[in-house]
Amino acid sequence: MIEEQINGNQTEGKDVKDMQDLRKRTFSRQELTELLRSDDPQLLQELFETARKIRDEVQGNKIFAYGFVYFTTYCRNNCNFCYYRKSNGIERYRKSEEEILAISKALIDSGVDLIDLTMGEDPAYHNDGFETLARIVRRIKEEYDTPVMVSPGVVDREIIDKLADAGADFYALYQETHNRELFAKLRVGQDYDERMNAKLYAKEKGMFIEEGLLAGVGEKEEDIADSLLIMGEIGARQVRVMSFIPQEGSPMENCRTPDRLEELKIIALMRLLYPTALIPASLDVDGIGGLKDRINAGANLITSIIPPKSGFMGVAQNTMDVDEGGRTVKEAAAILDEMGLRIAAKDEYRRFLREVK
Ligand code: SF4
Question: How far is the CA of 59 from the centre of ligand 1 (A)?
């Protein structure tokens, strides 16, 4: 069913006016809510097709690729949806500076356009004032000449200054929902405004920001519509959605993962609203098997590429396809090739960041 709606290519005889309506770029909360609620196969097919067309008009057959480096799985927080929450008695790791640089180099050599340095809110990094992370960012920028995204969680302004000065291009920090009540249930004990303000400050400092939402955690369509609109209001350059995956040992362990159509619709609506945004097809939800549907929904970027047998993990699907070599540029490129698409070169990505607003 999803396959047909997403990949279908039969628009003959469709009402052109409907297609143009989907291209109008401004949607009210009510319109977004209705689109999210719709299960009309024809409308959904048009939605995905329009999203793909918009992406192709902006960047042709190029798709960007990010290397994922989850370098410490220690965390001081207890988010209810997360495997790495502090109270979960799991085995954890904290990689050394040299290990982080080595995996970054391997990812760059394999053809990624950016290194995404992600961490749990590890107290060890807070204790060293993020000197280590700033040094790693600087070295990747200077020695490997590659854009860097940092995902350090909520940090003070002086830390954001330090990371911006080190050359970090992106600061990723996801609210997951913009419904404050739901936020409080998901990110237990954390402050909604503090999180939002950290992001806004990073933008003020000249960094690009990434905002994200989690699908299937008790939100209503209206909440998603709010998130979609807020992402634009705060000027996020990259916007992501991931489906919730139940995590062993977490309080939400027995909650169900949502139907993927929800995530795909959100990707398509993001593309309609924000034609030039970076919108990930994350391999961290359904592995490499989920790539095609997400790209066909309008994503323009592959995230969560991890070299096999590196000892580094994913977040939502921490091991899926990793050691088997499924989450590599090579595997992704082969799938894109069948779709008439290709991985962009680093210079093309940089030009996109600079010139396509
Ligand atoms: S989502 Fe991030 S901040 Fe929350 S518990 Fe997991 S690693 Fe920590």
Answer: 33
